Structures are given as C-alpha cells and as structure tokens.
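User: Sequence recovery, please. Input:
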C-alpha cells in the first residue's frame, strides 16, 4: 500500500509511530498522524493545518491529556484550570512525568510494546488512497492523509481538528487551492 505514498507521506507515517512511542501509546492513532503532519514542514497537509491555525503544541497537549480530559469535561471538571492551579501551587511542570527511580543499580522503565496502527489510523490510511483516486491522483500525499483523518469520523485526530473548527469540505477546498497554487 505504501508504494503510492510520496516521501513526505511516508515520513508522516514514520513520525506518527515516533509520536505514539514518545507518548507511550500502544497503537498509532489518527491523532498521531495529525501530530506527524504538523511536524512534516513543506507538505500541503502541514500548510493547510497551519493556515487553519492548528499548532503542534496544542494538539500534542490534547493528545497527551487523551480521553481523560474529555471524560473530565463531561462531568464539569476543567483540566486546564486544575493544571493551572497545581502549577501555581507546586511550580511549572509539576505534572510532567518524572524519570523512573533508580533501584539496586538498575533503572526500571516501562517495557515498550511494539506499536501498531489502531483501526481508525488503518481506515484513514486506506481512505487516503480512495481520496487520492477520487482526485485523479496517482500518489498519496500529506494532503490525502489529512483529508482521510478528517473523513474518519471516529478517530481522535479528526475530532481534535473538528474541535479547532476544521471540516472535511472546507479542508478539501483549501487542499484544492494549495494544489492549484503548487502547479
């Protein structure tokens, strides 16, 4: 499947794995694809995200907070307010993950589980091919991955982007404009 991916699109897939690993997530999700798109500068996907005001740090913080933040919001707890209060009391970065303690000369670390794509990411990567073909493209670029993430409605990446005001139709318009300007 990856033979149709441009070099940038392949890099996005590799960086998504790195993002999942860095967050100690067991699977690569659409949220990791969004983070990777934001890191792959120069691609159309990155340009469209930036034009929509989507920033890496904001998405990374939302992904790191994960579904716990959504669950807390649903019961009226503002995680950002809690974080601000804790940092005011205990200092900036008080909630950052501490390094594992050293015992008996050995450093105990969580064992890494091989990272795989979750169903949403798999579906998005498959959709990226369909989207590329529907646009009569013989390649899959970062723009196709971005559109596929938005089209895969159950994925966390698409949800994060929709929360920032992005929609599939508006993003398609931006992608088509960017493609036209690049030609």
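Assistant: Recovered sequence (183 residues):
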């Amino acid at each position: 499947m990856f033979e149709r991916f441009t070099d940038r699109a392949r890099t996005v897939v590799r960086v998504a794995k790195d993002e999942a690993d860095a967050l100690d997530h067991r699977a690569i999700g659409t949220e990791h694809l969004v983070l990777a798109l934001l890191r792959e500068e120069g691609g159309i996907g990155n340009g469209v995200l930036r034009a929509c005001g989507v920033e890496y740090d904001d998405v990374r913080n939302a992904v790191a907070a994960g579904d716990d933040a959504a669950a807390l919001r649903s019961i009226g707890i503002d995680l950002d307010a809690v974080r601000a209060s804790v940092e005011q009391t205990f200092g900036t970065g008080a909630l950052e993950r501490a390094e594992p303690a050293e015992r008996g000369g050995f450093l105990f670390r969580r064992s890494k589980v091989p990272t795989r794509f979750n169903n949403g990411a798999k579906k998005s990567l498959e959709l990226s091919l369909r989207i590329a073909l529907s646009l009569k493209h013989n390649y899959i670029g970062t723009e196709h991955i971005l559109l596929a993430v938005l089209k895969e409605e159950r994925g966390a990446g698409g949800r994060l982007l929709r929360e920032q005001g992005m929609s599939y139709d508006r993003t398609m318009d931006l992608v088509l404009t960017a493609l036209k300007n690049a030609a």
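The two ends are 26 Å apart (CA to CA).
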